[in-house]
Amino acid sequence: MQLIDPSLWRFLPLVHAVVFGSTAVVGRILIAKNRRHNAVSFSRGDSARDFVARWFYLWLPVIDGLFLAVYGFTGERGQPVLNLAGLEWVRLVGVACLIISLIWVVASQASMGAAWRMGVDADTQTELVTSGPFALSRNPVYLGIRGTMLGQLLVVGTWPVLAIWLMSELLVQIQVRFEEAHMVRLHAQRYAKYCARVRRWL
Predict the structure, then answer these.
(1) Which pairs with CB-CB distance under 8 Å and at least 24 residues apart come from 122-125?
(2) What is this structure's pTM?
């Protein structure tokens, strides 16, 4: 017995992307503006750091959003990756990943307070956050994004989404290393001690 109408699967990832974008991105940027700091910390510069940040924060979401819109409104999603891709239980696991990851990302951003940025902010001395989700992971926001992209892959389960997931995995691994190098410069021994007791992911 199908628990969810098959036509609804087309819209679930798109609805999630809209909720994620409005809360974890637009909402956080507006909160940052209210607190009078610039949350977007990458530019049109030619450095590797800016290039990766632009792809991770701008172009990847655009590509992903366009694909989800096409899938939602036309039903076209490409060839399945595995025979498991169309099974309802696999999709339900994916939905659970999407929901848990969204809650995790929002909670992680909230625990960062004014320290939250999109990219590396080399001009501002931000505090080192080690409590809340940061007591379990050095990069909980990015961990949540990884869970989101995995959930999307499980729900849609086709080659285009696999390609988007692989691109996301590559970019997040590079972005995290740029940000951790920045934290070493900013907090030196305090950050080294934090790294010794808390893993990069979990």
Answers:
(1) 122/41, 122/182, 124/37, 125/186
(2) 0.92
